[in-house]
Amino acid sequence: MSLSIGIDAGTQSIKAVVLDLKSKRVVAEARAALTLIENLPAGHAEQHPKDWIEALDQVIKAVLKKVNPKQVISIGVSGQQHGFVPLDKDGAVIRPAKLWCDTSTEEECEILTRKLGGEARVIKLAGLPFRPGYTAPKILWLKRHEPKHFARLRHVLLPHDYLNFYLTGKYTMEHGDASGTGLLDVRKRVWSKQVLRAIDAKLESYLPALQDSRDAVGYLSTQRAKQYGLSETVLVGSGGGDNMMGAIGTGNVTEGVVTASFGTSGTIYATAKKPIIDQSGEIAAFCSSTGEWLPLLCTMNVTTVTEKVRALFKMDLDELDKAVSSVYSVDNPLVILPYIAGERTPNVPDGSGVIFGLNAQTFDPALIARSAMEGVTLGMNYGLQRLAKLGVKATEIRVTGGGAKSKAWRQMMADIFGLPVVAMVEDEGAALGAAIQAAWCHANKDSIKHIPLIHFTRGVVAVNEKTRCKPNKRKHAQYLKLQVLHEQLSLTLRPLFKAHKALRA
Fold first, then answer.
1. Which one-letter DSSP state was computed for residue 301?
2. pLDDT by residue (tens digit) across 309-330?
3. Range of 259's domain?
4. Are 208 and 157 in contact (CB under 8 A)?
């Protein structure tokens, strides 16, 4: 028996799964909670990397109590994308990590875009525009706002790279996660020297070597092996961003399958054989962690919105589901723009939440709950429609995250997307994907001929047919009209969002 451990380091928790490579089943799981640093200015989102380490140690030790540690051959790490972990010359963390959901770098995005000759020029250089969530503007933010910290900077890592560094002592970055920094030319999979110089002349020397996703970072360090009771022959795979690992963990390694993650944030992405460059900059032209590409849309607000609504009306998850189902057959006159944390796609960092259509009859908890689900799903569908215009055609949507657990929401997804929607047997897609990819790296280390990754997803990744929902044609037609209204409302209010921000400044 051989075992592979998969780690998923998210915003709210770190999860671990153990994959038995013979039975192709997950045989152990563990989770440790994480929290954001409190009382930061609006738009700032940060965590202490030491908290990730403590949680990582906790979940690895927890799953190893449930299996035979001698059978572990590999470890893979998935991590929240775009986070900036600044290290000094000795590898010590300089300051807390700025996260993907940190939108404090809007000004830095504008500075970099202007310096490089406009957004079209940036897309030509890197394949995607600068967005506040990306790593590149965070580095410039550190230089502009905390020069003493920037003066100590010698290594730039992403969250999953930092955990790999902790496990192996090596500084590396693979193409998939690197493509979410804004520093990489995603077409050629090399650092964009023009972008690096626009931030700082020495930045290239602070970046780790890029590696192919099928190559391992290295072996577990002597210190970690002793700490966990594992062999020093345990290989640490390249790992990748949570979306890249989520693609592997949902079997999204061939064209036609689209993954939609309804978690804290929302992502929709697909596998592509060539770079999918969106000249409007709305779809991120990411690389995958399989050697291909992963065009992706990300929205900032999904279960954060439904959880706020649930808390407001004191509903548990079942009550929320029942409330939405109770009003799903009637026409809903409410429209919610769910921009409670600003928004990334569409790019509305100054946005705020809006409930449109309230009156004496519509001021109803069930209708508001339904509208919240609809609002975030319409935002996701905006991306799916954009992917279709770029030539990425979906035949099935595989859903993961907290939203995937709701039967009412899955049916709504199918009706809005106009496609079959199905959840996975193993919902921890990113952690499972990390375990699969680590096993793939292990198999390729001594192989003369490259072994395709799809061989490792077969029999491991499975959809839960009991959760499959098919679209209702009448509902879909109604939602197409609502989609237009939703987008018109967003466009109309964007100047007012900026004016509102100016008033509060």
1. -
2. 999 999 999 999 999 999 999 9
3. 251-300+385-428+463-467
4. yes
Q: Which two tokens stand for residue 33?
A: 């909670």
The first and second tokens of residue 349, run together, are: 């960092």
Q: Which residues, including other chains, have CB under 8 Å from residue 246's CB and lie 6 or more apart?
A: 78, 252, 259, 261, 267, 269, 400, 429, 430, 433
Tell me whether the omega of the peptide bond preceding residue 86 falls within 30 degrees of 0, making it cis: no
> Is 448 among the domain residues?
no
Q: Do 148 and 88 form a contact (C-beta atoms < 8 A)?
A: no
| Total count of domains within the chain | 3
Res. 448 pLDDT band, cuts 50 70 90: low
DSSP 143-175: HHH-HHHHHH--EEE-HHHHHHHHHHS--EEEH
- Which residues neighbour 113 within 8 Å (Cβ) at sequence distance 6 or greater? 119, 122, 129, 130
- Which H or E run includes 387? helix 365-389
Q: How far apart are CA 51 and CA 35, in angstroms?
A: 9
Secondary structure (3-state) at 77: strand
CA distances from 81 to 85, 102, 435, 465 (A): 11, 12, 18, 30
pLDDT of residue 486: 96
Could you list the active site residues?
Answer: 242
Render pLDDT for 98-120 as a digit per residue (tens, 0 to 9). Answer: 999 898 999 999 999 999 999 99
Cα–Cα distance measured from residue 87 to residue 184, given in angstroms and rounded to the nearest whole number: 20
| Count, residues in the chain | 505
**Distance, CA of 72 to CA of 64 (rounded, Å):** 9
CATH number for position 278: 3.30.420.40
Q: At what angle do helices 473-504 and 407-417 cross, to 10 degrees?
A: 100
Pairing of β 396-400 and β 335-337: unpaired
Residues 273 and 332 in one domain: no
Q: Which residues contact 336 (CB under 8 A, 6 or more apart)?
A: 305, 353, 354, 355, 356, 368, 371, 372, 374, 375
Above pLDDT 90, what percent of the chain?
87
Q: Are 365 and 327 in contact (CB under 8 A)?
A: no
Domain presence at residue 39: yes
pLDDT digits (tens, 9 = 90+) for 345-400: 888 888 999 999 999 999 999 999 999 999 999 999 999 999 999 999 899 999 99
Where residue 33 falls among pLDDT bands split at 50, 70, 90? Answer: very high
Which residues, 6 or more positions from 433, have their beta carbon under 8 angstroms from its beta carbon? 6, 76, 78, 244, 245, 246, 247, 248, 249, 250
Ranges of H-type helices in 390-428: 407-417
**389 in any annotated domain:** yes
Q: How many CA atoms lie within 13 A of 71 on its CB side?
A: 15
